[in-house]
Design brief:
This is RNA polymerase sigma-70 region 2 domain-containing protein. This protein is 69% helix and 0% strand. By secondary structure, it is mainly α.
Amino acid sequence: MDRQDDEGVTAFVRASYGRLLHEAFLLCGDAGRAEDLVQTTLAKTVVVWSRLQRSEGIDNYVQRTLINTYLSARRRRAWWEQPFSRLVERPHANKLPPSHCRSRTSRARRTTPTSDWT
């Protein structure tokens, strides 16, 4: 990337960052994720910047990349990352391990030199 491309990217980022951040927030509903989404989108845009300047489709590309990046992240999100409205696990009455496990652990600790604990 030459100096002229660098200046063009900088000007584009300054001009469109706020708008992209707002659009990303509307997509994901979280300010932190919106920032990550915009940064990923802009990183993908920088990679193809010289090609985009020739086609003059920078705004369209960035908009489509923002949406595709969001959708891709949603697809990758595993089921265990989805928030639940209720607690799935039941709390255990006894938080301690069974007594036979505790006695084995105690025995192992007594016979192991303290220098090996770390």
